[in-house]
Amino acid sequence: MKSKNYGEYITSYVISRLDLVMGLSRVVDLVNPFINSHHQRVAFIAGVIARECGLPETDVNDVVAAAALHDIGVVAEKEFKELANPEFAGHEYGHGYVGHLLFKNQNCFGNISQMIRYHHEKWNHGKASYDLGSKLPEGALIIHLADRVDIMTDRNKSALEQKAVVMEKIASMKGRWFKPSHVDAFMHIAEKESFWFNLEEPDKYRLIKRDYRFNTLVLGSGEILEISKLISRIIDFRCSFTSTHSAGVAKSASILAEMCGMDAESIRNMEIAGYLHDLGKLAVLPDVLYKNGSLNVSEQRMIKKHTYYTYYALNCFEIFDNIKEWASFHHETLDGNGYPFHVKGDRLDLGCRIMAVSDIFTALTEDRPYRAGMDKEGVISVLDELVRKNKIDARVVGVLKDNYQLINTERDKAQSAAAESFNNFLDSMQNKGIELYLEE
Ligand SMILES: [Fe+2]
Ligand SMILES: [Fe+2]
Ligand SMILES: [Fe+2]
Questions:
Q1: Ligand minimally distant from the alpha carbon of residue 42
Q2: CATH 2.60.40.10 fits 225-431, yes or no
Q3: Ligand 3: distance of its center to the CA of 187 in Å?
Q4: How far is the CA of 433 from the centre of ligand 2 (A)?
Q5: One-letter-per-residue 3-state SS of the chain
Q6: Which of 159, 327, 422, 426 has the fewest Cβ atoms within 10 angstroms?
Q7: How far is the CA of 72 from the centre of ligand 1 (A)?
């Protein structure tokens, strides 16, 4: 089958830049069980400091957006624990650099990649290191200050009670770590009880939405696909085998969608859903996710949460409404005994059925670190058995069987291409001396 170019703009999606940023920020916070809702809190703090400093509104918005995503380049528990240390000073080619690479070509998020890159940069009495001097973005310095304020404030105690201690610590770092005018702005804000009460407010999205005017974006489905690839890259950083798995599922699902007669826009959306289906795995501890051997009951429960989290994360992007169910129902079964929603066959539309088959097919055929992919006979007998037990759709499995060679070749090609681009990325990281702490 020839791959078709469906054109860039089949449909346009309208979304506020704030919703896009905050949705992605929630995804990033899924990875981070150690500093609960860190990104949302830093976005709030950085925004009020930027405004107090008198930055133009468009710059203030970029500071909020960059702050909501600043640690996106961190994916391993080890590094998160390091960040939670108030003395953490960052590295030139650390997670800020990784985050910058993710966003440098993504215009719809705003002018944020340089701020993310240098958010651990110290002011150092105006002689910031890395030879940036005056080119160091103001926003990066503000995010650095906001980030440290959040890390210093213990979530288990009343924020207001810690006011004096945090202010004193920040004052002692003035000039060395932070730009004096930023510290002065923070001191002015921190005098008010309302700042500390707002910091404890669980719904930062509401606060930010009320206080800032973000522009509205009109995105084509090609841009949505790019954003979904960006999100899947965050999963890639965590585990190299998942990275190629998502690409294999995306490819199998979009081919099956076309063969089953779905329209061009739905085919594109199936590809997007394939890239995102395992998004929720970000919220599951890698030790459990990649355990080689049988899982105990509590580990099984944790695994079952991954599709729930896929749903939860996509729920905050309205533009993903039609993609959300295709992505997150892939462990539901026709007999209603799947997980986690126990959705029955009458609620599982063609897209959901194709995704479930694509996920199983890809998982069986792909090579994994501890075993080679299964051959055709083995795969077909597993799929037939699942059809017989009323778990997956007979028609979709029939289409797959009729076109097995073609679909399997395309899947394999897509996974090899994903592996290659992932390895190139790892090489460029290694050249910069960046350790990604990949889980094997
Ligand atoms: Fe950071
Ligand atoms: Fe941070
Ligand atoms: Fe999967």
A1: 2
A2: no
A3: 48
A4: 21
A5: CCCCCCCCCCCEEEEEHHHHHHHHHHHHHHCCCCCCCHHHHHHHHHHHHHHHCCCCHHHHHHHHHHHHCCCCCCCCHHHHHHHCCCCCCCCCCCHHHHHHHHHCCCHHHCCCHHHHHCCCCCCHHHCCCCCCHHHCCHHHHHHHHHHHHHHHCCCCCCCHHHHHHHHHHHHHCECCCECHHHHHHHHHHHCCHHHHHHHHCCCHHHHHHHHCCCCEEEEEHHHHHHHHHHHHHHHHHHCHHHHHHHHHHHHHHHHHHHHCCCCHHHHHHHHHHHHHCCHHHHHCCHHHHCCCCCCCHHHHHHHHHHHHHHHHHHCCCHHHHHHHHHHHCCCCCCCCCCCCCCCCHHHCCHHHHHHHHHHHHHHHHCCECCECCCCHHHHHHHHHHHHHCCCCCHHHHHHHHHCHHHHHHHHHHHHHHHHHHHHHHHHHHHHCCCCCCCCC
A6: 426
A7: 8
Q: Which ligand minimizes its atom distance to the CA of 120?
A: 1
For residue 279, the ligand closest to its alpha carbon is: 3
CATH 1.10.3210.10 domain residues, the chain: 12-214, 225-431
The CATH number of the domain covering residues in 12-214:
1.10.3210.10
Per-residue pLDDT of the chain (440 residues; tens, 9 = 90+): 333 344 444 577 888 899 889 888 887 777 766 667 899 999 999 999 999 999 999 999 999 999 999 988 876 666 767 777 777 877 766 788 888 888 888 878 888 999 999 999 888 887 765 556 557 889 999 999 999 999 999 988 999 999 999 999 999 999 999 999 999 999 999 999 999 999 998 888 889 999 998 889 888 888 888 888 888 777 766 666 667 889 999 999 999 999 999 999 899 999 999 999 988 887 787 778 777 778 899 888 888 888 998 998 888 777 777 799 999 999 999 999 999 999 999 999 999 999 999 999 999 999 877 778 999 999 999 999 999 999 999 999 999 999 999 999 999 999 999 888 888 877 877 787 766 655 44
